[in-house]
Amino acid sequence: MKGVKTKHTISKKEKEQYAKLLILFEMINNKTYYKIMMEGDFQYIEPLFNEMNVDEYIRVEGNRYVPTEKGRTVLNKFMQRFFEYLKIYDIFAFVDLEEGVFAFEEGYELDGDEYDDFIEQERWDDVRVAVAEFKKMNVCEIIFMSFVNEGRFDMEKAGWQFDITSGLVWDDIIHIANNSITTEEINAEADDALECVVREGQRVAVDLIKRINEEKEEEDDYEDEGEGEDEGEKVIYVETVVEEEHHYDYWDLYYDPFYISPCYCDPYW
Length: 269
Fold this sequence. Notes:
The chain contains twelve helices and four strands; from the N terminus they run ααββαββααααααααα. It has 269 residues and is mainly α. The chain has a two-stranded antiparallel sheet with strand order 1-2.
């Protein structure tokens, strides 16, 4: 399926806010503290640091910038949205619209290269933009989250400072937003087709969340009995930035295709 151009865009202010979120993520989650005297490529992002300092999201400590509690609160709000995106909305990245099935469910038992080959099949469509439109969510923000998840913002490679301040990466997001499968295309044969996709996708997502949680509980019980060994797990956030834990009853809310988590209504700034 091929989308048609719509009207999604990202304002200059939104681009700067997304760039600030990336910087806060690097400072808080990876404990990367930047020097006050910025040289070379860092001059591209110096205005962002000046603004964050004035707004008290970061502060000066010695010869470097460090995050404040206010900055942690901003990142925490983003991370809550990001984790919900991964749990609920990323499932719509690979949908067989002809069969009404989702790659995340069909390929659940596959690992590594097998899964990579599985999602490369031509039958999968990415309907995340259409779902975001259905939910009346910020389409470009959803794509920004997908870029974060896919590692499109590499803060270790040379020139990353220019990448997050130039228009190129944001142009890519806008292009995807305006050239993805549309609501009209999905609803071409039935007016409620997209609603059915959203309903079924969220059911699959909730069922997978519960399945994963149950498997984790079984593993924890096994380790508590002294039979397992903790091999360690990569932590993607530290200190005050944490993922909110939800009980099963919370995820049941997503059986309603129109439900949107309150975290998406809470502004970052």
